[in-house]
Design a protein that fits this description.
Blueprint: E1 3-7, E2 22-25, E3 28-29, H1 30-43, H2 47-59, H3 62-70, E4 78-79, E5 86-89, H4 91-104, H5 108-122, E6 123-127
Parallel strand pairs: 1-6
Antiparallel strand pairs: 2-5, 3-4
Helix pairs in contact: 2-4, 2-5
Length: about 130
């Protein structure tokens, strides 16, 4: 069963006033990149906000973290687009990614990539104002 994420028009998912000092590079597969763009268009959110939501969904939940550790690497071709290759993270997110990386031996880029893939495969997006 997939989880359902309902985004209401009047709810702010991400605070624009909160500083995000940790700029992090990442790479995703072509399919994942297309899904991110599709979700951003459907929800009228930025790709960066969706990525931060994906990270929160995976890195702070032990059940999802197990999936992150067990998931085999995708053999799909990676895409690198300079304008989409970085995301600004909060200190809490950056510290948690570093902790997971050190504890489980997974690169930080791989943690971000896998978190996005897990999130996009498990969460259905639906706008609550339709």
């Amino acid at each position: 069963m997939k989880n359902m994420l309902v985004i209401k028009q009047n709810i702010m998912v991400d605070s624009f006033h909160e500083p995000r000092p940790y700029k992090t590079k990442f790479w995703v597969t072509k399919e994942c990149y297309k899904q991110l763009l599709k979700r951003a268009k459907e929800t009228k959110m930025t790709v960066s906000n969706i990525i931060r939501m994906a990270l929160n969904y995976v890195i702070f939940d032990e059940a999802q973290l197990e999936k992150l550790k067990d998931k085999e690497e995708m053999s799909d071709e990676l895409v690198h687009r300079k304008h989409r290759s970085t995301v600004n993270l909060s200190e809490e997110q950056a510290n948690r990614i570093a902790e997971i990386s050190n504890k489980h031996g997974i690169s930080r880029t791989e943690i971000i990539k896998r978190s996005i893939e897990i999130f996009l495969n498990q969460v259905n997006f639906r706008r609550g104002d339709r």
